[in-house]
Amino acid sequence: MKWKSICIHTTREAEDILCSILCDLGFEGAQIQDSEQLSEEDRKKMFIDILPEVDEGDQSALVTCYLDEGRSVEEAVLAICKEKDAYADAVDFGDFSITVSETEDTDWVNNWKKYFHAFRIDDAIVIKPTWEQTDAFSDADMVITIDPGTAFGTGAHETTRLCILNLKKYLKPGDSLLDIGCGSGILSIVGRKLGAGLCNAVDIDPVAVAVAKENTQINEIPLSDSNCPCRDGEGVTYVCGDLISDKAFRESFFTEHYAVVVANILADIILPLSEVVGELLRPGGIFISSGILNTREEQVCQKLEQEGFSILEVTRQNDWVSVVAKKPE
User: Fold this and answer.
1) Contact 177/171 with Cβ under 8 angstroms?
2) Residue 211 and residue 183: Cα distance in Å, rounded?
């Protein structure tokens, strides 16, 4: 199906009132493009580590809305212009030129899959999407099958690769593992296949937890029926919650102090996590963190050292960094 889009060239000043007009006229949401930089508060809420360069002096904006099938474009444009005129004395709408175009109803959620193919992490670990059938691996290969859906973690990103390689290096058979910010579940799955004993995982996003559970079952790893961190060591327990700000939730994990904690998130999350992750690790335990841009490497290392950790290793791929730290014995 094809959709009609109405693109309105206006000003940043008029964005809010124009979106309100569109809402009153029955449009379900609008897309805004402008050069206004995100606030520090919004940046943290959206977990953005680096911001694009924008021209703060550019006051123009583009507001786009989409027409339901069967709705008249001409009538919609006339209605928008009529409502705009009622505010013309109070708000600068700019030239208010309008462009109508047609767009395909693309399956954005699944279209990216055409770019995700089986690949090697190293000479022994292979990541394969669920929709790709291939037998081009040897019996000695550890094959991880993943469908990340809308959760982060295909294994292709440098941050995930770094975590997997560090897990392979530092996780010993039988070690307990905690995966913080589990995303698609790929690190928990790799950890179990590398021989981890108890394996618990947590994410603040319930969608990620659901996706991780599905991927774990695809890889024939059992799930715990518990909604709390467990000690059975038979499979993986996935829990939704915030280990940093929710002290009671964090303390529910104290039934086990972990040999290894892995967190593939962002520097802005690793920093506050560094203040509490020691509570979750046994003496001499290993904390593998990743998702860190190279411009934040020094900051993260300094924070970990302030919290009493010793830095064992820093590994890098392109612009990304993984830091391996050890809790004192």
Assistant:
1) yes
2) 8
pLDDT at 56 over 60: yes
Other beta carbons within 10 Å of 303: 20
Phi (first) and psi of residue 85, to 5 degrees: -60, -30
CATH number assigned to the domain covering 111-326: 3.40.50.150
Q: ∠73-79-81 over CA atoms, to 5°?
A: 105
Question: How far apart (Å, rounded) are the C-alpha atoms in residues 329 and 311?
Answer: 14
* Single pTM value for the model: 0.70
Instruction: Establish how many alpha carbons lie within 13 A of residue 209's alpha carbon, considering only the half-sphere containing its beta carbon.
Output: 17
Q: For the chain, which residues make up each domain, given as ranges?
A: 2-105, 111-326
Instruction: Answer for the pair 327, 309: CB distance below 8 angstroms, yes or no.
Output: yes
Q: Compute the average pLDDT of residues 73-93.
A: 89
Helix 267-274 vs helix 297-306: angle between axes, to the nearest 10 degrees?
Answer: 10
- In the prediction, which pLDDT does 27 show? 84
Which is more confidently placed, 327 or 227?
327
CATH class of 2-105: alpha beta
d(CA 157, CA 26): 40
Please say whether the beta carbons of 258 and 11 come within 8 A.
no
pLDDT at residue number 39: 53
Q: Indicate whether 90 pLDDT > 90.
A: no
Residue with tokens 């959620």: 109
Distances (CA, A) of 268 to 43, 48, 60, 173, 244: 10, 9, 31, 31, 12
